[in-house]
Automatic annotation (TrEMBL):
It comes from Chloropicon roscoffensis. Transmembrane segments: none annotated. The keyword Membrane does not apply. Gene3D superfamilies: Aldehyde Dehydrogenase, Chain A, domain 1, Aldehyde Dehydrogenase, Chain A, domain 2. It catalyses: D-glyceraldehyde 3-phosphate + NADP(+) + H2O = (2R)-3-phosphoglycerate + NADPH + 2 H(+). Residues 29-490 form the Aldehyde dehydrogenase domain. Its EC number is 1.2.1.9. GO terms for molecular function: glyceraldehyde-3-phosphate dehydrogenase (NADP+) (non-phosphorylating) activity; lactaldehyde dehydrogenase (NAD+) activity. Belongs to the aldehyde dehydrogenase family. This is NADP-dependent glyceraldehyde-3-phosphate dehydrogenase. InterPro entries: Ald_DH/histidinol_DH, Ald_DH_C, Ald_DH_CS_CYS, Ald_DH_CS_GLU, Ald_DH_N, Aldehyde_DH_dom, ALDH-related_metabolic_enz.
Amino acid sequence: MSGSATTMFFNELFDAASGQYKSYINGKWLRSCSNKVVTIMNPSTREEQAKVQACTREEIDEAYEGCAKAQEVWRQVPLWKRAEALRKVAGILREQRETIADCLVSEVAKAKKDSLSEVDRSADLIEYCAEEGLRLLSKGDFLTSDAFKGTERNKLCLSSRIPLGTVLCIPPFNYPVNLCVSKIAPALIAGNAVLVKPPTQGAVAGLHLAQCFDKAGDVFPKGLVNFVTVKASENGDYMAQHPGNDCLSFTGGDVGLSLAKKVGMIPIQMELGGKDACIVCEDADLDLAAKHIVKGGFSYSGQRCTAVKIVLVHESVADALCEKVLAGVQKLTVGMPEDNKNITPVISEQSANFIEGLVLDAKQKGAKFLTEYKREGNLIWPTLLDRVRPDMDIAWEEPFGPVVPIMRVTGADEAVAHANKSRLALQACVFTKDVDNAIRLSDAVRAGTVQINGAPARGPDHFPFQGFRDSGIGSQGIVNSIGMMTKTKTTVINLPTPSYTV
């Protein structure tokens, strides 16, 4: 598709007269009657990038009403047709990969190549979800009553999975497309409606994703998929507590802790960040560990929930590991996302200030800087700290930036103890050549996932993905998401009690 055709393709969602993007409610692109907007800043230039609608509570109510009506139709659509509809969206998404990737570059300062990869991965996820949904949801259970002691063979139980209703999807800024479709696709294949509240940074990319669903045509009932932009401080809680919600899937920060207490008796799926520990044992392959620490700690400038957030290395190999990690860090390029640099500006000045506060606290308390700390606006150069101690804030806090602290430990047990003290327990990783030790440490570390000889990572998207403690509730991954977004329905057929003689 040509550039001009791409622009025309998306004309509906942008009001050129006001310079504002519209919300997508009940199959229509609308400006809010609030006459208020949410401003999106470009993290690289720190200038205004776009304006989206600040929708009212009445408009939110309309979206939920549309979801409820459309879901009654959608739940009766044959499963194979739902799968075909999702495949169609995946195809449109691939056609629009350049346009959506450009939004990610300007909205969240993600390198262009990584932005394209996110869009491609999202299309792959939608297609996989369509296929997996066909397999999972076409199955049921058949039980007979006489398996239970004292009962006769006079009851037949048919069990299947049915949709919940409306799923509220709240993705984060760092993967506003991929972590949006990871919620939408399971919900839709299961027969649910979805209401999406895009993140502020990443909202325009989210609205372009909405256009892909819109352009899929009448394969989706109007109102089945809604993208509603709001001022979170005004209407975030209103959406989360709305009686129209039958499920909440949220990825983000600590705000999820408060939301979890407010949403009531509906299924909740939350991923709230991590302080992902990397344990490097005395017998580890240090070249392998260093490679994964650099990639795991600094990809997308460390703004990943699965980034390496602290390295816990045996003191006997710490010097050698530091040398190898430093060599890798020095090869990283720093600059603007459109130039495909490894390190790009972090999402906001507030985030940059928080990261800087952690770095300066470590400096004041005696951490050894293996790299010079440097910052220009929201751009922070990759920072590698050695001899971090438990009394430093960065030993516990999640920087969500290009900073990797290294703590020296006397043994694996000390490393495990530190990792298990953290309130955040999303993932961890262990580097060792001893398979028995790897399994022992995996069992000892209380985190949602433990990677052996590899950096923490969310994907592949069909793997289970979950956190312990303050890192989350429920489990993600395509199979688990479909399971959470459905519930078991049983039909019991009562038969005459058979007469028999023994």
